[in-house]
Amino acid sequence: MLLDKNQKIQNYKNLAKLIKGVATQCMGELQLNKKWNSQDREQMINAVCGVIGKQFIAREVEDPTRVSWGENLENILNQSRTENVCYDFKIGLHNLQGDTSFNTKLVLKIVKTLTAMANSHAGENYVILGVADNKESAEKHDEKYSSNPIKYDSFYITGIGSEAKEYHKNIDSYFQKIQQTLDEAPIDESTERIIQRNVNCFKYHDKDFIVMKIIRESKPMKYDGQYFVRKTANTDSSPVDDIFEFSQEFTAQTERYPYN
């Protein structure tokens, strides 16, 4: 399913639950006192795939109705603890205290982060708006908006619906403001188009959240005329100084990635 069908796992925890006991359920032929053949093997594979198949989705799906983004968000949160180079989370685009105007600088910082992610990781990379990574921020958000954040593991899904309503009347206007701000980013037109077409709004229970996704292209992405990379959970504040070494590493990593 991963290799032949070029699919990916939608939610690892749910997949693990489905795998539990799968040998007993689907591989009874292995327990019989007989030599099993290729037909038996094929039947067992089909049976297992039938059980776990709903936790696999196509790697590139443009229609959001085909993807359970509730489960997808949970999977991203689970993976971010060990693969933090390709995930980042923001509670929103308006400060909870002080100057609460739309934070244009934060949007531009997110664009820089996305280009650095693409330069550092050959697979899918995400910045999610509407998620607090600590309890203190979630409590401040709840105090300001009465948002009742949803706890998932050590994260709190606050959503961006409250600030969208407070400052932009609705989510559509909020979304449009993000797209307009992306026009101001110091990136080339190709990179801008890639980022803009991969900004989408989804729901987790009753919370609206925004996904900004980027996948590495055939060449590195520049921000403000320079290349940046991401180290662990942070974008390196200094641009790449050895372009030749960076280009070699970029090319080698891209060639190793099996799903391009």
Offer a concise description of the structure.
The protein is an alpha+beta fold.
Can you walk me through this structure?
- The structure is a single chain.
- With 260 residues, this protein is of the alpha+beta class.
- 42% of the residues lie in helices and 18% in strands.
- It has ten helices and 13 strands.
- A four-stranded mixed sheet has the order 3-4-9-8. The chain has a three-stranded antiparallel sheet with strand order 5-7-6. The protein has a two-stranded antiparallel sheet with strand order 1-2.
- Helix 7 packs across helix 8.
- The longest helix has 17 residues.
- The chain is globular and about 75 Å long.
Q: What is the element layout, followed by pairings?
A:
Elements: E1 7-9, H1 12-19, H2 22-26, H3 38-52, E2 56-58, H4 69-80, E3 87-90, H5 104-120, E4 124-129, E5 131-132, H6 135-145, E6 150-152, E7 155-157, H7 161-168, H8 171-182, H9 189-196, E8 199-204, E9 207-215, E10 222-223, E11 226-227, E12 230-231, E13 234-235, H10 243-256
Helix pairs in contact: 7-8
Total strand segments: 13
- Main sheet, how many strands, which sense, barrel? 4 strands, mixed
Strand-and-helix sequence, N→C?
Answer: EHHHEHEHEEHEEHHHEEEEEEH
> What's the arrangement of strands in the largest beta sheet?
3-4-9-8
Query: What is the structural class?
Result: alpha+beta
Helix content percent band: 40-55%
Radius of gyration: 21 Å
Report the total helices: 10
Give start-end ranges of low-pLDDT stretches: 61-66
Give the overall form.
globular
Give the end-to-end Cα distance, rounded to a whole number of Å: 16 Å
What average pLDDT do the residues reach?
87
Relative strand content: 15-25%
